[in-house]
Specification:
- The strands form three sheets. A six-stranded parallel beta sheet has the order 4-3-2-1-5-6, with helices on both faces. A five-stranded mixed beta sheet has the order 8-7-13-9-11, with helices on one face. It has a two-stranded antiparallel ribbon with strand order 10-12.
- It is 18% helix and 25% strand.
- Strand 2, helix 2 and strand 3 form a beta-alpha-beta unit.
- The model has no long low-confidence stretch (mean pLDDT 86).
- With 250 residues, the protein is α/β, with parallel strands linked by helices.
- The chain has two domains: 123 residues, 3-Layer(aba) Sandwich (Rossmann fold); 82 residues, Beta-grasp domain (Ubiquitin-like (UB roll)), CATH 3.10.20.30.
- The chain is elongated.
- The protein has five helices and 13 strands.
- This is Flavin reductase family protein.
- It comes from Amycolatopsis silviterrae.
- It holds the Pfam family NAD_binding_1.
- Its cofactor is FAD.
Amino acid sequence: MHDRVRPGTRLLVTAPSGGFALPAVHSRPIVLLAAGIGITPFLSHLETLDPASAPEIVLHHGSRDASRHAFRERIAELAARLPTVQVLDHYSRPGPDDHSDFTGRVTADRVDADLIRRRARFYLCGPETMLEELTAGLVARGVPRFDIFTEKFHAAPAPVQIPDDATATVRFARSGREVTWRAGDGDLLRFAEASGVALPSGCRLGQCESCAVPVLDGTVAHLVAVADDLPADQCLACQAVPTSDVVLDA
């Protein structure tokens, strides 16, 4: 296979990315709601959990029927290994011999009220219409919007092309610091930390979008697609790089 790669070809390798990161340890319940192959990020999460420290997790997984139930056997194996994980299957068009916990699509009213009372955190993955309906339904049941995290199915954004010799002046307005950013410095969150400037961030703990910071002047680009409801004058520092001299409210 190597002889098919032409000499001089450049390979871009990036870290895994996505719209959210799930906590491996947490004091509150975690509710996962997925349809079809929207189970994929949750499957990866379950694979990494330690049975001795895994949080309480309730997984609602929607499929058309048993024959189209993605990763059914592997999910069952993981649930058997993880005593704090409960899996609830939803079949929208079950066959006569199909057995599931719920008939119909995954909806907000299927979530146990006790989980909402105990301030569970909700992670959703699936088609955009499903995410909108679930989010609206959960909010109507009293779930704070900031406790709901979504991952949409959409085409990957065109990669940001940053020249190797790119530079920009980054000014942290409230800190009074002005530092030169270079392409090798990476995203603004890492750059700020390396420059001795503390930015708000819970990204590494699964609190996605907690690193949002106002851009007072200049322009930035995100390395991945970001949520549609991110204000136009803000950037996610953990995924943003400057495309001009920039002033951040930090």
